[in-house]
Amino acid sequence: MNDAQLQAAYTSATGRPAGRVERLPGGAGNRIYWRVHGLNGKTAVVMELPPDPVKSEEASKDHAPQELPFINVRRYLDRIGVRVPRLLLDASAGGYLVIEDLTDRTLEQALKEGANRRKLYSKAIDRLARLRAHAERDPDRTCVAWTRAFDYDLYHWEFEHFIEYGLLARYLKAFEAEGGERPEASDFVGFFDLLTVQRKLKDAGRFVFIDRVKKNPSFLVHIPSSLHYVRDALKRRPELREVEEILRKHVPELA
Hints:
Elements: H1 3-14, E1 18-23, E2 32-38, E3 43-48, H2 69-79, E4 87-91, E5 96-100, H3 107-112, H4 117-137, H5 152-169, H6 171-177, H7 185-212, H8 223-235, H9 241-250
Antiparallel strand pairs: 1-2, 2-3, 3-5, 4-5
Helix pairs in contact: 7-8
């Protein structure tokens, strides 16, 4: 959006003439935020939406929601008394929203300014506890949050995301910058798969050891996910087919 479009959005939402526009820093998502200053000094934030605003950047098994998750979750939180930015204008069909400006003063900034640490954190924890208690007491199935789960598929996607960017995109480039010979990405992933098989098989055995010898069964719940990693790594490595066949005879999770 250009300045004229942002100023027009502000005027449509507030009924007041707009002045200076500034792009807000930060934001790891795919939305862009702009602060628009009114001629009377009051501000509002324009949320510029991506081309496909309901599509998640992360793995999701859900169908695309019928409305923006931001609007959906904001409505739920507002209904149960959580202080969220007011929605001044829903122009999502036109590619943007206009919302209340809550300023740049974050919790971190307040602490840097000398605010009472114990008081701030106590208030935050209290509100989080109330939010959780309300969700368990009165679940709202119309809220998109109740359709999401941090399950194996999402966990696996996040791990692959780390491999692609945390390892391949970051460390291979850094290795080359230090004068090393840049290995092929396929070779690097192959080595990582071998390491995964070795480490995750060790983890599964170690968790049973901790249960049987140290009498602490709390780690047993992590065995299935560890073996899932082994199974997926073995599938990518045809040269380990014989190893895979032997393991599948004795480890049901790998079958």
